[in-house]
Please model this.
Amino acid sequence: MTGAGSGIGAAVARRLHAEGADVILADVRAEPVEAIAGELGQRAQAVRLDVRDEDAVGAVAPEVDVLANVAGIGSTTTAPETPLAVWEDVFAVNARGTFLCCKHAIPGMVNRGGGSIVNVASAGGLVGLRNRAAYCASKGAVIAMTRALAVDHVAEGVRVNAVCPGTVDSPWVARLVEDAGESLEALRARQPMGRLGRPDEIAEAVLYLASEDAAFVTGSLFVIDGGLTAA
Model:
């Protein structure tokens, strides 16, 4: 899976490995995934991967039967405040990166008789969040792509679904909060449940969608947001 160096990606790697899967932990930062792979031991491989680089993705993605696209970056501005370079970088990682990993993973899955893709989108792809213009737009693109890929490849045995987390207590969220001058307490208050999600809670949903327990599930969105999109 991509974005495996911390937060949701690391939790997904640990959960799938615990279920007996051979896991490839990919991240743009080598050190964190090497440490996690060392911790997991056998059946875990660390790869430094920039999901924006098609050649690099093409060297890794064709080997996987389950793909979890977790890598992502955020933004903390309104549209008028967002530099074009920031907009393009958010889309390059969140939308283009997800597209490239799917593009290069699907043919191998088809040749081996099928597979499962789980894209990590966001509640922000379903509703508007303040000061998150580029991020919300990029995650909306991931949601639309998930549905399109699902119908394109359902007859070939490839299932494509997405999880849409609300605000999760992770190092990534902590950095965004600091950049935006917000507080974790304010984010907790925004959630109807009054708390942030945990990476392991998202990992459980990824595990379900990746597994044969979800054999009749494709093109679906699994919203895990503490009631944010219902309020």
The first strand starts at residue 23 and ends at 27. The domain at 60-224 is CATH 3.40.50.720 (Rossmann fold).
